[in-house]
Structure formats: structure tokens, C-alpha cells
Amino acid sequence: MQSSGHRLRDIEQHHPLLSAGGDVEAGTLDAGVMVGGPHHNNHAGPNPHHTLWFIQDGCGMVCAGITWFLVLYAAFVVNFVMLLPAKNSWYPLLNGAVFNTLAVLALASHMRTMLTDPGAVPKGNATKEYMDSLQLKPGEVIYKCPKCCSIKPERAHHCSICKRCIRKMDHHCPWVNNCVGEKNQRFFVLFTMYIALISAHALGLSGMHFFTCVKVQWNECSDFSPGVSVLLLIFLCLEAVLFLTFTAVMFGTQLHSICNDETEIERLKNEKPTWERRVRWDGMRSVFGGPPSLLWCNPFNGLRFHRLLLLTRGRRSGAEFAV
Hints:
By secondary structure, the protein is α+β, with helices and mostly antiparallel strands. It has helices at residues 58-83, 90-115, 128-133, 185-215, 226-260, 264-268, 281-288, 305-311, and strands at residues 6-10, 34-35, 50-52, 140-145, 150-151, 156-159, 164-167, 171-173, 178-180, 315-317, 320-322. The protein contains 8 helices and 11 strands.
């Protein structure tokens, strides 16, 4: 597809001329809501029919389910094995409030990461009419993804699982069943942070519980038998160590990528930056939005519950739930 005013190239490795922050269609893509669907017109402005982003990948859905199961298992052991049988009144109340609050924030961050459009480029917008509407200068080169037939913005990469080009794609994470990209990276950072915190908290509580139970020879230490309690605690400690190690490393690498304005794909491919880098606090503000505040730690910030309720009444189509 070619016109006299510009050249179009089918290429995967690229330094395209379109801005990663600009909209590729007339209309915008809100966080958590993706403008699109099987009947979407890429040139007709905002569509009244929205799409709830959810990748229907078997492996990703299983991994996401395992994540929820392990967090809920940890909450069960902490609350019913360690805290509720405690005789001290302030100890279970304080630790229960802290642990359960962090667990809710971790699961909320996981849901926001999984159900938020990571920055998908609209499919099939590489048409002659759309390229003419870009008003490109003669000789300018734009790049088209041959897999999803879309104009590729700068720093966009194609995900074979999501089957879309994703702006500022960092990686595809099966544990959240989604890509980590321009629009959901902050939720992924919060998810790794809160999982690391509840893992560390669970390890500390487990150590205190073992010490207390051994001291009283497991008498009135738990509503469960000593053997069952030990097995539950051992599995919790193994889970907490693995989760703490993995999420702490991911949290650190994500912060490093944000502060250096470089995605994991760009680092691995050793791509030279052709964009103006936003480093350190500028990079943090670009991902989390606004000046530093406690809202950065709130996964519910910006969530539109009334729109989410409307979206859940939709039907399924393609790789996402179309509404």
C-alpha cells in the first residue's frame, strides 16, 4: 500500500515517525477501556461501544488463577491458623488489618493490570484513507506491522499472545495474563510491591508463630492439630520466600526501567533511544501521573465503577471481551 506523499514499510524492527504518546485514531483509549470491537471504524471518532480488555489465553488465565489462589491461601493461613487463635487482643487486630489491607491492594492491582488496555494500537488502521489523513510530509516513512496490519507508533512492539502491537511494551506476563505496557505499568509495579510486602509480612508472622507454638509445646496454639498447622505454615513459608524473591526483583527492575525510560525489550535489543528520555522523577511522573503522592500507591485511583458495570454486560468476540 503506497501513496505518492509518503512511503509505507512492513517492518518489525523500526524507529517510526509517529509519536508513542499520540492517538493513532480519532478518539482516545482510556485506561481500562479499549475503544474497538469487531464493528469498530478506525476513522469515525470515538465509538459508543467499548471493550473490556481481557486476553483469552489459556496459560495466562491458569497462571492468573494460581496467583489468586496463592494469595487467598496465604490470607487463610495468616487469619485462621495464626491470628484468630491468638490470645492477645491487639496482636491479631493490628496484624490482621495490615495483612488483609495489603492483600486487597495486591489483588486489586492484579485486576487492574489484567483488565487494563496496556496501550494496544488499533488493528487494521494501515489504510490509504487513514494514512492520507495523517498529512505526512513527502518522503516521510511510516511503519506497518504485517501481523496486525496497523501503523506502529514509536516504541511499539507486537505481542504474539495479545495479537496486538503494544505501546512501550515491557514484556508479556502470564501471571497477570496481559502485556505490561504504557497504560498499565503502574498497576504492575503496585502489584509486585504489595505481593512483596505481604510475603515479607507472612514470613515474619510465621516465624513468630513457630516460636510461640514451640514455647508452649503447641498447646492452644491453633485450632488445627500440630501436624496440620506445621504443614500449612511450611507451605506458606515456601510460597512467601518464592513470591518475595520474584516480586522484589521485578519491582526493582521495573523502577529501574521507569527511571531510565527504557523498557525491558529495548534493553534486551540494545535499541538506541530516538525519543526524548524522561528519567528519574520525570519518568515516575509519566507512569504514575502527577506529582508524588499517596495516590501513586492506590490501585483504585481513576477507576470508573459505573463504566465497569456497563462493560460487564457485553458479549465475547475475538481476543478481548467486546461490549
